[in-house]
Amino acid sequence: MNEDFLHYLWKYRLFSKIDLQTLENEALTVLKSGLHNKNAGPDFLNAQLKIGSQTWAGNVEIHVKASDWYLHNHEIDKNYDAVILHVVWENDATIYMKDNMPLPTLVLKDFVNENVLNNYRNLFLLPISWIPCQNSISNVDDFTLNNWKERLFFERLQRKSAEIKDVLDKENTNFEAVLFQLLAKNFGLKVNGEAFLRLAQSVDFSIIKKVSSVENQFAALLFGQSGFLEDKIEDEYHQQLKNEYKYLKYKFKLKVISKNNFSFFRMRPNNFPTIRIAQLVSLFHKQQNLFSKLIDLEELKDFYALFAVEVHPFWKTHYNFESTSKSSPKKLTKSFIDLLIINTIIPLKFLYQKSRGVVDEESFLSILKKIKPEKNSIISKFNEVDVSAKNAFETQALLELKNNYCAPKRCLECAIGKTILNKKVFI
By its UniProt entry, which InterPro entries does this protein fall under (predicted)? Predict the structure, then answer.
């Protein structure tokens, strides 16, 4: 038995109220369960109970075993002097108050419905499964699921924006600078994300602003900083960038990042770090003051249009500096832009709106509901348990559900878990 589950039973009164009585055979009526206290002290504060003919106001302490009272040294802690009821699952000891009278005790297992216990066992005590409720989640009603998904999405958005806030503080609230860093990390995807972030952070954004208006200078800066201009390559474009970078490196006192930080291994050519750097150069060169432009956009098609930039002609026939290839435009795909919108643009816009005190939640939902659902192992597993996602809003919610509720078994804090515990939904 889990003490958190006992808290849940008491908080939501999931026990029989008929003939409810204390261990001392006194009739018990719960007038108010009290305020759930997650800090030090009794578990529920300011409860109101009627024990026998007397009405009491005070605190309630809950344990799996009655002897836990002494195990936790509550008898010498003044915070527990105002406890009016001890709720336990097993009564293995008599607890005495300061006046040496037995503390009124409720043995909860005598009053809990067997259906609730079966549901609890299925959630918490079965052999390890992918998610605790995988045999039951598809039976939860759509109203509960849809409302919980929206809550999950905004929890995820809040958490992402909080992480971005830390970066923003370091950059003195320069949203343009933070956008550059976050987009750079996204351009690197999972394999090269950290290397791209180090690249973006290796140059003060004031320098980025100065050189981004001249494409060759900007390309020289990023390719030079990432170490791709260190080699001796007999190519005119490479030489141009190399000479340009030599000047920039001296002028701004720059330090090169080793190109060994960037991986090409088992990657599709379009995801090569050289191509992603070239696309990043084109984007910030052609879309000056990008953050200011993004803030005003509300339609998905406008985001696609803003990111519809072409790489330098050299990269249309190259995937690296060494060899030529068949010509291709190497534009940012819609699926890649979707990832940028989901992982960077919306969290950053959300943070920006919060900083100004006006958050348009519906606009975020509207955009994400128009984006196709993400494809990853977690979403695939949800499909296997008959929980499908129609769009990116729902995939984001399901990712939050799996990572922050299912994995740590926070079923008692989850709307789905609560529904399952309260109803006959297990197969």
Answer: DUF2851 (IPR021272)
Residue type at 399 in one-letter notation: L
Distance of alpha carbon 92 from the chain centroid = 42
pLDDT of 121 > 90? The answer is: no
pLDDT > 70 fraction of the chain, expressed in percent and rounded? 99
Q: What is the DSSP string of 80-104?
A: GTTEEEEEEEE--S--B-TTSPBPP
Nearest to 291 by CA among 225, 204, 205: 205
Residue 296 CB neighbour total at 10 angstroms = 7
Measured in residues, the chain has a length of 427
Residue with tokens 């509720």: 405
Pairing relationship of beta strands 54-65 and 83-90 according to DSSP bridges: parallel
- Rounded CA separation 377/331 (Å): 27
| Helices 215-225 and 273-286: angle between axes, nearest 10 degrees | 140
Q: Which amino acid is at 64?
A: V
Q: Is 263 exposed, middle or buried (0-12, 13-18, 19+ CB in 10 A)?
A: middle
pLDDT of residue 50: 97
- Collapsing DSSP to helix, strand or coil, 332 comes out as coil
Q: Is the pLDDT of residue 127 over 80?
A: no
Asked whether 342 and 392 are in contact (CB, 8 A), the reply is yes
Asked if residues 388 and 409 have their Cβ atoms less than 8 Å apart, the reply is no
Structure tokens at 203: 């140059």
The CA-based angle 6-12-16, given to 5 degrees, is 80
pLDDT digits (tens, 9 = 90+) for 253-298: 999 998 899 999 989 999 999 999 999 999 999 999 999 999 999 9
**Cβ contact 349:366 at 8 Å:** no
